[in-house]
C-alpha cells in the first residue's frame, strides 16, 4: 500500500452517489435504478484487496457490509443479496451489496454486463437517497 491520502477512484465517483460516511467506509449508492445497489469504499489509501487492511479494519469492513446488507434487506426485502469485492475494472478496494429479485433484468446471472445501467432521474435519486438515509441505523 502507498502512504498517500485516501482519494475516491474517479470511476467510483462517476458511477455512485454519496449516501453516508461510516467508521471505515464511504457508503455510496450505485447509479443504476435496475437494482438497489450499495457500494462500500474503505477510506484506506492504496487498499486494493481485503488483505491490505489490518485485522481491525477487516472486522470493521465486515460490520459495515452487514450494515449495508441489512439496510437493503429492510428497505427493499430482496429475494437475494449479492455481496462482492471484484475490483477487476476499478482496483481500489470496494464492496458491492446488491439486492436481487427473481424478475430483475439480469436474474439469475450476475448484474455486470447483462443490461445497460439505468441512471436515476434527479427525482428518483433524491427519493432513493432519502429513503436509505432514513433507514440507516442511528
From TrEMBL:
Top-level EC class as recorded in UniProt: transferase
Keyword field: Methyltransferase, Transferase
Entry-linked InterPro entries: HIT-like, HIT-like_sf, HIT_Hint
Matches recorded under PROSITE patterns: HIT_2
EC number in record: 2.1.1.-
Domain of life: Bacteria
GO biological process: methylation
One Pfam family matching this protein: HIT
Protein's name in the database: HIT family protein
Chain ranges of the HIT domain: 38-107
GO MF, one annotated term: methyltransferase activity
Gene3D superfamilies noted in UniProt: HIT-like
